[in-house]
Predict the structure of Microsomal glutathione S-transferase 1.
Amino acid sequence: RRGKMAKSTQLIDNEVFRAFATYAAIVLLKMMLMSLITAYFRLTRKAFVNPEDAASYGKGEAAKKYLRTDPDVERARRGHLNDLENIVPFVGIGLLYALSGPELSSALLHFRIFTGARILHTFAYLIPLPQPGRGLSWAVGYAVTFSMAYNVLKAAWLL
Amino acid sequence: RRGKMAKSTQLIDNEVFRAFATYAAIVLLKMMLMSLITAYFRLTRKAFVNPEDAASYGKGEAAKKYLRTDPDVERARRGHLNDLENIVPFVGIGLLYALSGPELSSALLHFRIFTGARILHTFAYLIPLPQPGRGLSWAVGYAVTFSMAYNVLKAAWLL
Amino acid sequence: RRGKMAKSTQLIDNEVFRAFATYAAIVLLKMMLMSLITAYFRLTRKAFVNPEDAASYGKGEAAKKYLRTDPDVERARRGHLNDLENIVPFVGIGLLYALSGPELSSALLHFRIFTGARILHTFAYLIPLPQPGRGLSWAVGYAVTFSMAYNVLKAAWLL
């Protein structure tokens, strides 16, 4: 198995790339989880936005009362959008960073802090924790991505 | 031409990577198409959100009536956001999966089912089809991405 | 340093890939900047969406008046979402394009026009400039991404 992969591409044999693959997959799965959380709140709170989604709860006028917004649904949706705004730059910049030849220890530090910060951010948003809990977890993830971007630009320009 | 590419990078010579490049480009173009659909509905329904966009339809108070929401515009926007939420994980996890050395036949199966499911999802959202049409097409794409993430984590940890 | 990177991966030694890394990092950082602009407007306009964010400005009923929408906040948020809708396809398709073996001069042309167009788009959105300023800058970025996708599909199919 290893021989075949080494033939097809060496990237997965690179320790830093393998670390990136692991943490990028974890944060992207975490982001995908937000869809299920939103769906859970829509179904339990009976709060839909599409008439065809509310149709199974009643016909005509009876269904219309389920076309409404719900605070829990909106909160989960904001958490999902915040993930998109922050996890997309992490995955894009993180891939370039992983390919720029960083030390494995530095790379693991970046990937692990980001992943931890975004998991905390989700809890802080959904529970919700009082500020500055959510703000700090957001800022830590932001700073990690910024640090990786700095390393990418340095590597791309100084080579 | 081939020789030059092989020198610059072997990735595009990898059959799985080439399949990924094809389907990733197709679903990203499909996602970009949502911008044109939203713009089409905004122009034909005369429903804008920015005052400077409505300005060409009238001056002052006359333009204000075009600053409104429209069900078709909002539906296209929701379809676009759902694409972002689902196609971003597919592209990120799919790239890692393509580089993890899967069999070409498995990879093609993943990429083709996802692409087909997302195209169906767009039709189900815009027509709209009665549920569970849209829900099922969403779930199929979600499951494919989950399966690729499982393979990435297995490959990254077991090597 | 160079030797070590060359050993870990040759990608960063590829001139086109290095150009892509530079411009992708720049547009992703520009997109991340939208979070700070939104936060700036939320704090200066005192317009929040989460009760826990408004809590530091007053207790109970006093805080509720800060749970409101503000035109500047909403404008920055729309600019951020538009970045997600356009920069995500650029990064995904641009990576595939960079790995498909284009001429360096063509690649630089694509990357630089896109980056310039998206920076103009942000100014056009936030100032705001009268139309078609924002519309044109959006269309230029869209066309560049489309051109890269065409080259990716041509390279993936014709090899």
